[in-house]
Structures are given as structure tokens and as C-alpha cells.
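REQUEST FORM: STRUCTURE PREDICTION
Request ID: SP-0412
Submitted by: Lab K.M.
Chain count: 1
Length (residues): 250
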Amino acid sequence: MGDASEDAERRYVAWFHELDAWTEYWDVYHPETRGRFYFGNGGDEPGLLTLILPRGQRPAPFQAWTRMALGLDTGTRFVEEIHKPGVAAAIREIDDLVSGIFARHFRDARDASVQQDYLKATFRFATDTLPPAAERDARIAASDPRKATAGRHTLDGDLMWFAWALELEGAHILDDGSREALHALMLAGVAVGCSANFAWRGHRRTRAEYRADDSTARLLHDRGTVWARDLHSASEEVHALYRIREWGRA
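STATUS: Completed
RESULT:
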């Protein structure tokens, strides 16, 4: 699943680089945003992610999503939290940004070849097998806490896979249907990426059948292909993976 041409590999790197440039590394690449698409600048810009993701606190949408994923309620509370005006506006603005970046690097999420391409990209990202981020690493000072990961295109914080799913599920709730294919594909990417990341890099527990081997890579490819065409099944798999992370069983 991880094989890709040099052109595809460069595109995968560019996709993840641009996502990070607007979020975690906003101060380096987009200082004009003042951290709007992250957790703010510590001053006049609070940041959109502050409304939905944990950082020093557990916002109501995050609490509602975790209860839904754990099967502790039906998800009605999550829907209610997503529809609150400030949260809804934040989710829509983030979704607009991400969908635009996706279109530049992958084009149409309804295309089967694009789905395969995106799943390969996410697998490489999850297993930390993309080329190094040398340019970004050079920009980050040795004293910066981001230095440890600045030189790699990957994700080390295991909870962030589920934070990504929360944003996508929230965007789907607010969507008029025009981005369902994109949300389904990206949720499938979370399910594949989270599973691969935990199996290859050992960050957390995942399904017992997953190992860091070619057989698992093929299995995730096949499952991801199905999830990418069915948002509900992709969402259910992410929830199951969260239960395994928390409880050791789905």
C-alpha cells in the first residue's frame, strides 16, 4: 500500500505540508492568520480548534463525540453541540480550508483512483515513511518544542486521529451533501491511518489482527476502499478504534 511514484510522493508531502502550514506551523508559513486554524496566538486570536478540541480543557463537542464513539449515548448531544452557532461556523471554516487544499493536491474525492491515491498517502503518513521535511526542520529553532517532529511528515499524538474524525463528522452533519464523498474518504483515511499508526509505531492498541507487515497493509487497503465509499461504515470503524484505544475492545 505504501508504494508510490516519485511524483505521487511529492504530492503527498505537499498535501501534508500545506495542512501543517495552516495549523501547527502557522507562525512560520501563515503569520497573517494569527493561529486562527489552530489554537490561536495566545492573545487576540483564540483559534477555531479551541472550540472543538482538547488543549488544557475538554470542549463540549469533544466530550459529546467521545461519549458517542464509546456508545454511551446515541450521538444526539454531539449533533446539538455541532449546531451551536460558534461551533458550526468554526467547523465550516475549517472544512472549507481543508477541502480547498484537498482539491489542489488530489482533485475529486468521488473518483476511485483519487480514493486509492489518498489512502496510500495517509498510510505513508501514518507509518512515517514519507520523505523528511528538511525545509521546515531548518526553519524551526532547536529550542522550539516542535523541533522533535518538524523534520517528519507524520502524526505522533494518537488522540489527534480521533480529533480529525470529530471535525469530519461535524462537517458532515452541517454539509448539504456536496462534500459527502470527501468526508467519507477522509474518514476512511482516519480509520486506515490510525490503525496503521498504532500497528507500525505502537502508539496505542488497535485491532488484534493488525501487525506491522505487508499482509496488514493489504488488509487496510481493502478495508479502506470499502470505507471510502460508505461514510457510515467509516465512522463506525473510527468509533470502534476509539473504543479499542480506551477499553482494549470494540
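NOTES: The chain has one domain: 6-247.
Reviewed by: T.R.
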